[in-house]
From TrEMBL:
Domain of life: Eukaryota
Any single Pfam family the record assigns to this protein: ERG4_ERG24
Organism expressing this protein natively: Gossypium mustelinum
UniProt protein name: 7-dehydrocholesterol reductase
Protein's membrane topology: Multi-pass membrane protein
InterPro entries, per the entry: ERG24_DHCR-like, Sterol_reductase_CS
Keyword Ubl conjugation: no
Chief location: endoplasmic reticulum
PANTHER family per the UniProt record, alphabetical: 7-DEHYDROCHOLESTEROL REDUCTASE, DELTA(14)-STEROL REDUCTASE
C-alpha cells in the first residue's frame, strides 16, 4: 500500500524514493556514493519501486476514491441497515448508483455548525491552554519543532464541557448522533478542501525547510509536502488534525454513542459500557502520552497530506469509533463476569502497548542509561549518515518488549481493539472492520518502518534483525 520512502535533499526538498533493494551496505565509500546519488535525486526523479509504479499509483488512487464512499456506506449500514453488510449490499444491488447517491447525506447547516464549533473550540484550547515546552525530534534538515504539551488539559476540558452541556441541558449530544451522516459528509468534503489547502501551502508558503515537492501532483496531494506545517509560529496543523480533532473526536463520539443508547433504552448496556470505557482508556492513554506521539512516524516521518490528515479528520471519527456506533442499536447483555473479563483484558493490552512506547522513549531519552525490566538494557549503537553528510548515532533497544519482536507493540494495539469490539459479539462482521483494517495497517506499517530503518541504519539494522528476528509476533512472524 505505502512503499514510499521520503529522502530529504540538502536544499530542503524531498524526493520519493521507492525502495527496491533491502541490502544497504553502510561502508563509508558506499555511504558517500549514496549521498551523492541522493543529491542527484533532487534533480532527477527516481523510478524504481518495490511494487511496480502502476501498483503504487493504483493503490493511491484507489484509496483516494474509495475511502470517502466507504465512510458513508459504513455509517449507513451501522445506523440504517441494522449493521448488516448483506442488507446494504441488497439495497445497492436493487437501486444501483442512484440508490447510493440517494443514501449519501448532503452536508447540512447544522453539520457544518457542529464541526466548526468543535474545531474552533479545540483550536482555541490548543493555542490557549498552558503546557510544558516540549521539543520534538530533530528533522532531516536540522529543524527541531517545539510544542506546547497541553493535550491532557485539552482532553479533560473537552470531556467535562461536553458532558456538562448535556447534564445542564444546554446541548444534547444525541443531536450529533442524529446528524452523523451529514457530519461525515461535510467532513469528507471539508477535509478534501483542507488537503488542497495543505498542497497549496506546501508550494507557496511552507513553514520550514522540511517541505518539498516530488513534482507529481498525486504524490504531493496524497503523501503531503510539509512535515511540520504551521499557521503562524505556534499553531501546529498536524497536532490539530491528528490529536486535537481526530483523536479527541474519538472520545467525544464514544460518549455520544453511550448517551444515545441511554436516550433510546433508558439505560446503558454493559457491552456499551465496556466498549466506551476501553476506548476512553485508550484515548486517555494517548493524551497522557501525547508528547511521546510527537516522536512517532505519524509526526516525525509522514507528511501532512491526504494519507495522514484526511485520515485523522474523517477516518478516525468514522471508522475508529464504529464499534460504538454499532452498539447504539445493538445493546448486548454480557453479564457482570464476562464484561469484567473483557474489560480487564482490554485494559491490560492498552497498558502493554503504552509500556512498549514508554520503554523505547525512556531508553532514547536517557541515552540507554535506564533499567529495562529491572536490568541494564541491551542495545546496538547504530551510526547513520544524513543527506547533508553528517554522521550521527542512534541507540536501538534490543531487550524488553523491543527484544521480543521489532514491532511487538502492534500486538497489544490490535488485541485492545479486538477487546473493545467483542462486546458486540458475533452477529455481524462490520463492527470488526476496524480490527481487520488496523491489522492490515500495522502490518504494512511494520514493513514500511523496517524498510526505512534498513535504509537508514544499514548493517546495524541487519544486526538488530539477527538479534531480534521476528517482525511483529514472537516465534511466528
Ligand atoms: P514508532 O514511531 O513509535 O517506532 C518506530 C521508530 O522507532 C522507528 O522508525 C525508529 O525510528 C525507532 N526504533 C525502531 N526500533 C527501535 C529500537 N529497537 N529501539 C529504539 N528505537 C527504535 O512506531 P509507530 O509510530 O508505528 O507507533 C507508535 C504508537 O502508535 C504505537 O503504540 C502504535 O501501536 C500506535 N499506532 C496506532 C495506530 C492506530 O491507527 N491505532 C497506527 C499507528 C501506530 P528512528 O529513526 O528514530 O530510529
Amino acid at each position: 500500500m505505502s512503499d514510499i520512502l521520503f529522502i530529504y535533499t540538502s536544499n530542503g526538498l524531498h524526493k520519493e524514493r521507492f525502495i527496491i533493494s533491502i541490502e544497504v551496505k553502510q561502508r563509508p565509500k558506499r555511504r558517500e556514493q549514496r549521498l551523492r546519488s541522493d543529491q542527484k535525486m533532487a534533480a532527477a526523479p527516481e523510478t524504481k519501486t518495490v511494487h511496480s509504479p502502476a501498483l503504487t499509483y493504483f493503490s493511491m488512487l484507489s484509496l483516494l476514491s474509495l475511502c470517502p464512499p466507504f465512510v458513508i456506506l459504513l455509517w449507513y449500514t451501522m445506523v440504517n441497515a441494522d449493521g448488516s453488510v448483506a442488507q446494504t449490499w441488497n439495497y445497492l444491488k436493487q437501486h444501483g448508483l442512484q440508490g447510493f447517491i440517494d443514501i449519501w447525506p448532503r452536508p447540512t447547516a447544522i453539520a457544518w455548525k457542529i464541526i466548526f464549533v468543535y474545531g474552533a473550540f479545540e483550536a482555541a484550547l490548543q493555542l490557549l491552554l498552558p503546557g510544558k515546552r516540549v521539543e520534538g525530534p530533530i528533522s532531516p534538515t536540522g529543524n527541531r519543532p517545539v510544542y506546547k504539551a497541553n493535550g491532557m488539559a485539552a482532553y479533560f476540558v473537552t470531556l467535562v464541557t461536553y458532558i456538562s452541556l448535556w447534564w445542564f441541558e444546554i446541548f444534547n449530544p444525541t443531536v450529533v448522533y442524529d446528524h452523523l451522516g451529514e457530519i461525515y459528509s461535510a467532513l469528507i468534503f471539508g477535509s478534501l478542501i483542507f488537503c488542497v489547502f495543505l498542497y497549496i501551502k506546501g508550494h507557496v508558503a511552507p513553514s520550514s525547510t522540511d517541505s518539498g515537492s516530488s513534482g507529481n501532483f498525486i504524490i504531493d496531494f496524497y503523501w503531503g509536502m510539509e512535515l511540520y506545517p504551521r499557521i503562524g509560529k505556534n499553531f501546529d496543523i498536524k497536532v490539530f488534525t491528528n490529536c486535537r480533532f481526530g483523536m479527541m473526536s474519538w472520545a467525544v463520539l464514544a460518549v455520544t454513542y453511550c448517551i444515545k443508547q441511554y436516550e433510546l433504552n433508558g439505560k446503558v448496556s454493559d457491552s456499551m459500557l465496556v466498549n466506551t470505557t476501553l476506548m476512553l482508556v485508550y484515548v486517555t492513554k494517548f493524551f497522557w502520552w501525547e508528547a511521546g506521539y510527537w516522536n512517532t512516524m505519524d509526526i516525525a516521518h509522514d507528511r501532512a497530506g491526504f494519507y495522514i490528515c484526511w485520515g485523522c479528520l474523517v477516518w478516525v471519527p468514522s471508522v475508529y469509533t464504529s464499534p460504538g456506533m454499532y452498539l447504539v442499536n445493538h445493546p448486548v447483555n454480557l453479564g457482570m463476569q464476562l464484561a469484567l473479563y473483557i474489560l480487564v483484558a482490554g485494559v491490560l493490552c492498552i497498558y502493554i502497548n503504552y509500556d512498549c512506547d514508554r520503554q523505547r522513549q525512556e531508553f532514547r531519552r536517557t541515552n540507554g542509561k535506564c533499567k529495562i525490566w529491572g536490568k541494564a538494557p541491551s542495545k546496538i549503537e547504530a551510526t547513520y549518515t544524513t543527506t547533508s553528510g553528517e554522521t550521527k548515532t542512534s541507540l536501538l533497544l534490543t531487550s524488553g518488549w523491543w527484544g521480543l519482536a521489532r514491532h511487538f507493540h502492534y500486538v497489544p494495539e490490535i488485541l485492545a481493539a479486538f477487546f473493545w469490539t467483542v462486546p458486540a459479539l458475533f452477529n455481524h462482521f462490520l463492527p470488526y472492520f476496524y480490527v481487520v483494517f488496523l491489522t492490515i495497517l500495522l502490518f504494512d506499517r511494520a514493513k514500511r518502518d523496517d524498510d526505512r530503518c534498513r535504509s537508514k541504519y544499514g548493517k546495524y539494522w541487519k544486526l538488530y534483525c539477527n538479534k531480534v528476528p521476528y517482525k511483529i509476533v514472537p516465534g511466528i512472524y
